[in-house]
Amino acid sequence: MGAYLCIASNGVPPSVSKRIMLIVHFPPMVWIQNQLVGAMEGQQMTLECHSEAYPKSINYWTGEKGEIIAHGAKYEPVLLDNAYKVHMKLTIHSVSPSDFGSYKCVSKNSLGDTDGTIKLYRKYFIFCRIFIRNTIIRILEE
Description:
The structure is a single chain. The chain has strands at 2-8, 16-22, 26-31, 36-39, 45-54, 58-62, 75-82, 85-92, 101-109, 112-122, 126-132, 135-141. 0% of the residues lie in helices and 63% in strands. Keywords: Disulfide bond, Immunoglobulin domain, Repeat.
């Protein structure tokens, strides 16, 4: 997509030029860099998805049961668009057990629709105490 300049010349002046705008119409396409993401309870986590479409697409996030995720205290969906490209982000504030599961980024336009899935799984801390000659050593591991 973009502007093109066509110049016609047959060796006899003057040359003639015409600027043409090429617009390609296509259904949405979705790319997800990290389809499997781990988080610990209480952590803030941002899921990301990229979409391209023309005409411009409608984009949103859905949860495990297909419900549309709206902006609120818990979830913060953000859409950053640039021409026919959209960078979708979903920030989950203070991840809780009910947040683990699948999320979909959905993109729709008049030519079609598609979605991508991100699985959010629980990460655990391993906590041990080692006693060495009256010294306590704490080891935290992800």
